[in-house]
Design brief:
The complex is a heterodimer of chains A (236) and B (120).
Chain A: E1 4-11, E2 21-28, H1 36-47, E3 66-69, E4 72-75, E5 88-91, E6 98-100, E7 103-104, H2 107-115, H3 135-139, H4 158-163, H5 169-180, H6 188-195, H7 209-213, H8 220-235
Parallel strand pairs in A: 1-5
Antiparallel strand pairs in A: 1-2, 3-4, 3-5, 6-7
Chain B: H1 14-30, H2 32-42, H3 48-56, H4 58-86, H5 90-115
Helix pairs in contact in B: 1-4, 4-5
The chains are: A alpha+beta (236), B mainly alpha (120).
Amino acid sequence: MTDVIKLSVFRYDPEKDDKPFMQSYEVAVTKPGMKLLDALNYIKWHIDGTLTYRRSCGEGVCGSDGLNINGVNGLACITPIEGLKQPIHVRPLPSMHVIRDLVVDMNHFFDQYRQIQPWMQTTTPTPEHERLQSPEGRKMLDGQYECVLCGCCTTACPSWWWNGDRFLGPAALLQANRWIVDSRDELTGKRLDQIEDAFRLYRCHQIMNCMEACPKDLNPTAAIDSIKRKLLARKS
Amino acid sequence: MKLTKEPGSARSGIDDWYWQRLSAVMLALLLPLPFVLIISVYSGGVDQLGLLDLLDHFVSRLLHTLLILALIVHAYMGLKVIFEDYVQQIGWRVTLIAGMLVVMSGFGLWWLAIIWAWGG
């Protein structure tokens, strides 16, 4: 690995700039196994304090630093510098309204998440202790609950680019499936009713960019197919 | 602030999805048959009278009818999805889908008239 990493970073301040531009930086390699977020932090702390981006946990759990890295969406904090073609092109998540530099407006994304009502809904009385789940029932949640809502999958989906106002997108639908398959949730039918729609659900054309983009190696396409199969089973 | 006023689910979409796949399966089964017929004619296995006898048979007409119906349903569903994807203005989208439905229905009726020799 070279001692210096070259980056080309998207810059845009709507209050000052007429249009976005790419700014070049050279960052010293400070430690082995350095991640892209370390390089952005280096720029922020040592070169250019005006660079703006989101970050929090720094270990792929909070989902704050979803970025477009050399054309592919991913989390900066778990993307190793090593192996990335240089200069590393760092852009905000595609199709999103840029607030400043690498920070995008996630309001619509989280509004769509709220639409699938991501909490347990039941009709039976609350038991004295917790609602129990068998190991088999719990296993159904694997590959669903790990989503950190970084937005990498949804903003990589061409169907969401075209019809993002109505198509819920892979992240929200993965989360919808997480509650549909949860053995403790008792309003599966209502959940299916809410997403049975030509635009909300069936805009997914199995392009599978979501699967490629997910930094947690989840498969939203399979989750969406699972919902479609449940709707088919309900109708057939 | 919400970017869009959420209209809720239209409780539709599964029928389109279902018919698109059902018609695809029918096409996969039926579409090779005309090609087999064409190859048979060009290879000399079937002459003109033999071809007419084959096409005239009731089972052939039935399969031909199923093929053309599957083809029209599949093309309609596929193009409808494309219009829904790319045509953002609802007025244009509905007009294009309706126009396509009229043209394809007309084409289908014309073809069925040929298959079943309506009008003698």
